[in-house]
Design goal:
It is built from 17 helices and 41 strands. It is an alpha+beta fold. It has 4 domains: 125 residues, Topoisomerase II, domain 5 (Alpha-Beta Complex); 80 residues, Gyrase A, domain 2; 119 residues, Topoisomerase, domain 3 (Orthogonal Bundle); 308 residues, Neuraminidase (6 Propeller), CATH 2.120.10.90. It has a 4-stranded mixed sheet. Helix 3 packs across helix 4, helix 11 crosses helix 14 and helix 11 packs antiparallel against helix 15. The longest helix has 42 residues.
Length: 808
């Protein structure tokens, strides 16, 4: 009867065995040779086949067949994939397989089938198997108990760091980046000479990872953490350069990309960003890479700032990426997280064991040969008697016995004498035996010193490592930057010039240099503005500078923040880009007002004004941290919309203008500060069919004036003292008496005599004129014509251009 077994215990036992098999037998490399079992078996199978670097290539299918038939009881696809990777110079810092045929590409192209490709060991791979036939490593029986395979290779190369490794096991993973062979050898030599060296000391030789694709590495703190604790991360940046083209144009050329990055996917990502207009100013993108190296060319449009586009490429694509480092390896059949010094110590320990075992093997062989030569020397010294003994013997056995008893020889020596050919009796052959014997004595003495002296042993390891570095010179490919290159400050790359920002009712936005609009006389027809469709019109116009913040408040009471230079630049007649490319808008939502500010003064307040005459005052600090998805600025009633937002101080006054020509002026402190989602209080009591069209902030300068503009292009300047201060919530006083000629009041603004005004009409015309050209009128006057229009056009919007001492 079978004993009862708890299913819980059985599952635990089975899963533990499985996890150990994955860790030791598949995913995590051995610390000594830096290889996973599949790679080790591939190299040993190639060695067994005589498939070395100086022999003809063999079909990859032949090698894969030997591997899975003798050593690796898994699928042929997994073995071939591992073999292919060992041949790819963009994956391996020092390829271990010399492939002939299509072995894939950095674009992610699949290799040809294994029946088409041919392979052999690289020259460096031969160093992994050097002396394997000299009892340098242990062998174990294979999976079907028919032949033996090595547990580890007696490598002379510190491969775990040189080629790195990556693998995911059960509950753990390893990610060791490749390093420079010469640097790793130098650090190993230094540690051999001085075992007291620390990790920071070793980092004077090993500067950092050295990737086969080159690129630039930074993040030295993360690198130091990785080398000290076994875990850390570094950042890689592609190597970019700018090249001049004809007619003063520029191109950005990518010549090196981060490690393990698929070049074809990278180009697709860049193309998508260009098409989505997240990267502006690119006229062409093409791949000119060939077998000599990578060359991705990005042609720029005239006037595009290359540094700005490079910064966007680093920000939005994998041209800048992080590489995690996890120095996990199998040490004495257990996974262990190592620091840099511990790995080098493990490799030195492995080399010491290999050299000792090789020395013992060679010593035994040399002593055996010397023993035979001693017998031959005795025979040569007594050749006549030896010949007589042999001739006088009835058979070889008798002759062997007589030689042993007569000359005190061993069985091996007497047999060697009997096997000796007559040509060895010549004087030349005798001298060769003497020379060989003397050489063997020196070799035996040296091998004994290697075994008995740790200093001599280290000297042997040191000489072999120097030979490796000399034979396989490897210049560094990855440049290590001393400091983290901080992200380019885009603002520093763009001149802080004055611009005009226009936003259409359908959401098309652009910025245009103010110099595109020449100053004209009041009453002119203006110059052409944006080319919009018949059903679209400009609803917002403001002047700003490239370095200021642009706060966009929507009719539904949400707010977004952009830098002015983030608005796509366009000519006067350009349509612009849709606002949805910059912010995430809801259905039926549009930007109602835009606010331009250089700094968000956290001591000030925002005053929100709705079309139905509601006002709300909230601290600016409540709107400092804006999400990409926007922020709720205030709560609105169902029949109301946000009309305008203004920044005020505690001492400012607010004036509301209505479409039917009324105005009310009251102190801002009459509006009690409320939270972000409050709906506010009544600012003005509106008459039927009337609505608020402007909210003006009045500061301490009482010499300022109010410019009122009507929809048919009339306007007037009125001194502030014509508007008395009233209590909030009243019906207000007359500001302008609209009629059929003037049309309703479009809005107003606070101006000074030195300012200029920019007006945009429904005929897509813009006019810019000096405020001093406008006559000062009383509150009830209709004003003068500011802009002439044909075909019943109207003013869409306007803005003030501030000047100092009359100069822009």
């Amino acid at each position: 009867m079978q004993p009862t077994v708890s299913i819980e215990d059985e599952i635990k036992k089975s899963y533990l065995e499985y996890s150990l098999s994955v860790i030791i037998g598949r995913a995590i490399p051995d610390v000594r040779d830096g290889l996973k079992p599949v790679h080790r078996r591939i190299l040993y199978a190639m060695h067994d086949l005589g498939n070395t670097f100086n022999r003809p290539y063999k079909k990859s299918a032949r090698i894969v067949g030997d591997v899975i038939g003798k050593y690796h009881p898994h699928g042929d696809a997994a073995v071939y994939d591992a073999l292919v990777r060992m041949a790819q110079d963009f994956n391996m810092r020092q390829p271990l397989v010399d492939g002939q045929g299509n072995f894939g590409s950095i674009d992610g192209d699949a290799p040809a089938a294994m029946r088409y490709t041919e392979s052999r060991m690289s020259k460096l791979a031969g160093e992994f198997l050097a002396d394997i036939d000299k009892d340098t490593v242990n062998f174990r029986i294979n999976y079907d108990n028919t032949i033996y395979e090595p547990e580890v290779l007696p490598t002379r190369v510190p491969n775990l760091l040189v080629n790195g490794a990556a693998g995911i096991a059960v509950g753990m993973a390893t990610n060791i980046p490749p390093h420079n062979l010469g640097e790793v050898v130098d650090a190993t030599l230094a540690l051999l000479d001085n075992p007291e060296l620390t990790v920071p000391d070793l980092m004077t030789w090993i500067k950092g990872p050295d990737f086969p694709t080159g690129a630039m590495m930074f993040g030295l703190k993360g690198l130091k953490d990785a080398y000290t604790t076994g875990r850390g991360s570094v950042k890689l940046r592609a190597r970019l350069q700018t090249e001049e083209r004809a007619r003063g144009l520029e191109s950005i050329v990518v010549t090196e990309i981060p490690y393990a990055l698929n070049k074809a996917n990278l180009i697709q990502k860049i193309a998508a960003l260009i098409n989505d207009r997240k990267i502006e100013g690119v006229s062409d993108l093409r791949d000119e890479s060939d077998r000599t190296g990578i060359r991705i060319v990005i042609d720029l449009k005239k006037g595009a700032i290359s540094d700005l586009i490079i910064n966007s490429l680093y920000k939005y694509t994998s041209l800048e990426t992080s590489i995690g480092i996890n120095l996990l390896a199998v040490v004495k059949n257990r996974p262990k997280l190592l620091n840099l010094k511990e790995y080098l110590e493990q490799f030195i320990e492995h080399r010491q064991e290999v050299v000792l075992r090789r020395s013992r093997f060679e010593l035994k062989k040399a002593q055996h040969r010397a023993h035979i030569l001693e017998g031959l020397r005795i025979a040569l010294d007594n050749i006549d008697e030896v010949v007589a003994v042999i001739r006088g013997s009835a058979n070889p056995a008798e002759a062997k016995g007589k030689l042993i008893s007569r000359f005190e020889l061993s069985d091996v020596q007497s047999q060697a004498i009997l096997d000796m050919r007559l040509q060895r009796l010549t004087n030349m052959e005798q001298s060769k035996i003497q020379e060989e014997y003397q050489d063997l004595l020196k070799q035996i003495e040296f091998l004994q010193s290697v075994i008995n002296s740790s200093e001599v042993l280290r000297g042997v390891i040191r000489d072999e490592l120097k030979e490796i570095k000399k034979t396989y010179p490897s210049p560094r490919l990855t440049q290590i930057l001393a400091d983290d290159p901080s992200e380019i400050d885009i603002q520093d790359l763009i001149a802080d010039e004055e611009v005009v920002i226009t936003l259409s009712r359908k959401g098309y936005i652009k910025r245009t240099p103010i110099s595109s609009y020449n100053q004209q006389k009041r009453g002119g027809k203006g110059m052409s503005g944006s080319s919009l469709g018949d059903s679209d019109y400009i609803q917002a116009l403001l002047t700003s500078t490239n370095h200021q913040h642009l706060l966009l408040f929507t009719n539904q009471g949400r707010v977004f923040k952009l830098k002015v230079f983030q608005i796509p630049e366009g000519s006067r007649r350009a349509k612009g880009a849709h606002i949805s490319n910059l912010i995430d808008m809801h259905k039926n939502e549009y930007v109602a007002t835009a606010l331009s500010q250089r700094d968000l003064n956290l001591n000030n307040f925002f005053v929100f004004i709705t079309k139905r005459g509601m006002v709300k005052r909230s601290e600016v600090v409540l709107y400092k941290n804006l999400r990409a998805s926007g922020l709720i600025a205030l709560s609105l009633r169902k029949d109301d919309e946000l009309m305008a937002v203004r920044e005020v101080t505690q001492d400012d006054e607010l004036m509301l203008l209505t479409g039917l020509g009324f105005a009310i002026r009251f102190p801002c402190h009459d509006i009690r500060p409320t939270g972000r989602q409050a709906s506010g209080v009544k600012g003005i009591s509106l008459r039927d069919r009337d609505e608020v069209v402007s909210g003006l902030v009045i500061g301490k300068d009482t010499t300022s004036e109010v410019l009122t503009v009507t929809e048919h292009g009339y306007g007037k300047r009125t001194p502030l003292d014509h508007y008395r201060v009233q209590a909030r919530g009243g019906k207000g006083i007359i500001n302008l008496k609209p009629n059929q000629k003037t049309g309703t009041v479009l809005g107003g603004m606070i101006i000074t005599d030195q300012d200029q005004v920019l007006i945009l009409t429904s005929e897509n015309k813009m006019i810019r004129f000096a405020v001093s050209d406008v006559r000062i009128c009383g509150r009830a006057a209709q004003g003068v014509k500011l802009v002439s229009m044909d075909n019943g056009g109207s003013v869409i919007c306007f803005d003030r251009i501030p000047t100092e001492n009359g100069e822009e």
